[in-house]
Amino acid sequence: MKSVLINNLVSNVKLQGFYLCIEKKLRKKKDGSPYIDLLLQDKSGLIRGRIWDNVHILAKKFDVGNPVALKGVTYSYGENLFIKIKNINRASIDRYKKYGFVPSDLIPTSKQNVKQLWTQLQKEIKTISKPHFKKLITKILSDHKQKFQIYPASISYHYNYQHGLLEQTVSLMKIARLLARNYAVDSSLLLTGACLHQIGKLYSINIGFSADRNIEKQLVGNAILSRDVVNEYIREIKTFPKEDKIQLEHLILSYQGRREWQSPVEPKTIEAVLLHTINYMDSQVNFMSRNEE
């Protein structure tokens, strides 16, 4: 069976296809009977699905995070497109490869070339003038290169696709370099903060068909995890100045900005204000740009 990409779907069409289950919620109709509300994904986008009949039987056939094979029909409600699902099963290579199941078709990926992004990242690192900051980044990225190139920057908001962390890091470092020149701040500190403030996500996000948060992310938080990872590597660099360590630690802990946004501390230096600002701006632009596509 030929699976139609979500961004090519139109209303009132029967379909058979493969998608990734991102959300699965049991809800009630007006008469009190149950239905299942799904959020489905492939590499082209997202769509809501509804299971109105045989709810309890079909609910047992798949879980959140599973690739699924489904049969249904598309319909419009308001301005949104949905799939009315008549049958659904967990999809596996063994069972569905002969029907055209390709797992990579379910996973959103950066539109930018990964090799070019990595090359650009190395160019940005070379602009860092303080050798201990450059050495710190080089050691961390050398140990985490594969993950750093693959991981998303977030689960569901900005850069939430394969290679998203690398793509955002390059974007942030480009902006940081320009702002550092304009405001005459410590460019080495700001660029290092832009590069490493999300490094904890390599430890706090589990990735497979879909990404989710592990227990460390839920209980500790990304900023603190990132600070801890960076500090482990700083301890290996005996000549790393204590003042620069403290300044970098503050950038990492304050990049989320406000306490109500789960930031451990709020920015108290110009470099910290700049990192928070460009991180927030860049995340918003990426989110809005993808939603307009």
TrEMBL record:
Molecular-function annotations in GO: hydrolase activity
One of the protein's GO biological processes: rRNA 3'-end processing
CDD domains: HDc (cd00077)
Occurrences of domain HD (ranges): 169-277
The UniProt record lists the keyword Repressor: no
Cell cycle among keywords: no
Family annotation (Pfam families): HD
UniProt keyword list: Hydrolase
InterPro entries in alphabetical order: HD/PDEase_dom, HD_domain, YhaM_exoribonuc/phosphodiest
The name this protein goes by in its record: HD domain-containing protein
